[in-house]
Amino acid sequence: EIIGDDEIKGEFVDSAKSYYETVHYPIVDTTIECLSEADRILKKYVQDFESQVDDAFDSRLDSDKLEALYAEIRRSENLLDDFTHAMDSMTGNLNLGQQIGMKLGLETSMMQIKEEIKILERYLDFEHSHTNVMHDVLSRMYQVKTGVNEIMAGKAFNATTHTYDSSKMQLGWLNHLVPEKKPKKTYNFDDYTKTLEGSYWVLS
Asked: pTM for this one?
């Protein structure tokens, strides 16, 4: 209320207004922006996972599924080894029915993991394309933390004059509260093959 009241005057009030506008407001605004951005990124991350990797209702973004896949691969590899050994060994006593049953079991296991392998490959591609998606948000929140530590240190307040002076603080973090500007991507159209389809040029 003091900050927004132009009727209240005085050195303390003026210094407090300047201090809060310079230091506190940017921290509050950046924190709100970062939380909103983090929420948007996480929602998009889940949507991208469902569309690019696996849209199954019970899909989980953890290592359990991958570990289960590796276990299944190892089990199938063992079946393959057993089957190959039995077929190649002169002492193998498997009859035709056992051989067929073993082969069908192996084929079923291999078919089951083929789709899982495809999902794993899509997952690895997905992870590669989503590396550091939270980098900017986390970097800005780190600067917010630095700013909060500066505030908590009480460097700006002068106990003798009862005024605030933000120049007593280390304020380098303020310059990093805005989103990092990414360089504009440029395209070399000479690198593409151009094909005229109707009234449009298609690049490939």
From this structure: 0.53
